[in-house]
Amino acid sequence: MSAITINNKKVLFSGQIALSSRQNEFTVEIQGEKLFKVRFENDGIGKSFGLPELTDDGIVVTLNNFGHPLGMTVNGSFARFGILSKPTAYTIVVHVIGDVEPTRLVALTLSEA
Questions:
Q1: Which tens digits make up the pLDDT trace of 47-93?
Q2: Model's pTM, two decimal places?
């Protein structure tokens, strides 16, 4: 089995998902444990930001007014949580495709921090 590293830090998860305009969240489970949730919200104000928080569902990152055809990104890190024995970093990239019923193409990478 091959391993991917970033700056000599092990990549724990890397993947992408396409969400329709009616889908506003997804969850990543590692070894059967809910670990990381990404949620999209739109408050109509237009200012974009990412808000991470620790909840009973794991780490939840809420992306408000987030996404652009050219792409938007947010990254951060969190201390040990659940099955993760080391601090973990995350990077989320979002591209919005289409005008009438836009689709979000979301890429997520979790790695050791």
A1: 888 888 888 777 889 998 888 888 899 999 888 666 667 788 999 99
A2: 0.86
- Of 64, 61, 70, the closest CA to residue 95 belongs to 70
CA 108 to chain centroid, in Å, comes to 5
Q: Which two tokens stand for residue 96?
A: 């919005």
Query: What's the CA gap between 60 and 52, in Å, rounded?
Result: 6
82 to each of 16, 59, 111, how far by Cα in Å? 23, 10, 15
Alpha carbon distance 92, 94 (integer Å) = 7
Measured between alpha carbons, how far is 34 from 59 in angstroms, rounded to an integer? 9
